[in-house]
Amino acid sequence: MNILKHTDISLSNINYSKPEKQGTVYYSSIFYNKNQPLHIQTPRMICKSNGTDVITKTNPALECEPSNNDFSFYDFMLMLDERNVKETYKNNKDWFGKDIPLEVIDDMYKRTNKPVKKDSKPLFSFKLPVIKEKIQCLIYDQKQICLDIQKIVPDCEIIVVIHIRGLKFLKQHYYCDCYISQIKVFVSKDQKYSILDTYAIDDEEETKTDTQLIDEEILKELKQEEKAKIEKQRMKLQELFDEKVQLLEKQKKEMEEMKKELDNL
Question: How many Å apart are CA 56 and CA 148, to the nearest integer?
Fold first, then answer.
């Protein structure tokens, strides 16, 4: 997937498909260089929204403004709006089967950005993909560690990747459908806690201790088995010894009787 900065995009390479009906609306998909999805990386911006509050709204969106006085991204978005209007006018007969005046198309188009007031910065509003209050795009910090939406707080610095998906035509108006595909949050270095998001505990000592415990149990069992084996051997030898003693006494008695018989002869 190619992620493009706004300074690297040529508007003439943006392509539009013929609108197709999707439910109650018509949709014209937007591509770059004929068949590539158009993903745009914004410059570093100042977020004006609170992530925790945003995901509970009906139409969740992040609002942000440039972190400096560079209006180039705002100018790009204005030019993209103009391109969308002109492309719709250019193809209106093929798309809708009739000629529609440019002024009508221009009035129908709902622009992405509001005009900038004097001595103020542009304010961008980018839709967040949220389903059942669960954000569907990934959020990273500057160390590429995944973060939760709660890390997005007012006045934090962010960079977002916007997917320019297509033109969405409703009954009275149409607009450029785009949403946030990925977010990078610049987390303050002086944050109080540094929470690890992966398992990082060294189990070597615990494993060693567990092994020692196991070894001790095995040795104990072996000693008990050895003791039982020795006792069994002792008892067997005792039985043999007793049998030999009994046999010896019997033989001794028989010898005494034979001696008496000899003496009597």
Answer: 15
> Which contiguous run of DSSP H or E holds residue 72?
helix 72-90
pLDDT value of position 204: 65
Q: pLDDT at position 132, please?
A: 79
Q: Where are the beta strands (DSSP E) in 71-123?
A: 109-110
Under DSSP, is residue 150 helix (H, G, I), strand (E, B) or coil?
A: helix
Which range marks the domain in which residue 246 is found? Answer: 205-265
Residues 174, 240 within the same domain:
no
Q: Which pLDDT score is estimated for 167?
A: 97
Give the tokens for residue 30.
Answer: 């937007």
Buried b (16+ CB within 10 A) or exposed e, 237-248: eeeeeeeeeeee
pLDDT tens-place string over residues 185-195 = 998 765 555 55
Q: State whether 174 and 215 are in the same domain.
A: no
174 in the same domain as 90? yes
Residues 137 and 209 both lie in one domain: no
180 and 215 both lie in a single domain:
no
pTM over 0.90: no
Asked whether residue 192 is assigned to any structural domain, the reply reads no
Q: How many whole angstroms separate alpha carbon 133 and alpha carbon 128?
A: 11
Domain count, the chain: 2
Instruction: Give phi and psi for 114, each to the nearest 5.
Output: -85, 155
Q: What is the pLDDT of residue 94?
A: 95
pLDDT tens digits, one per residue of 63-82? 999 988 889 999 999 999 99
DSSP for residue 117: P
Q: 11: closest CA among 74, 76, 73?
A: 76
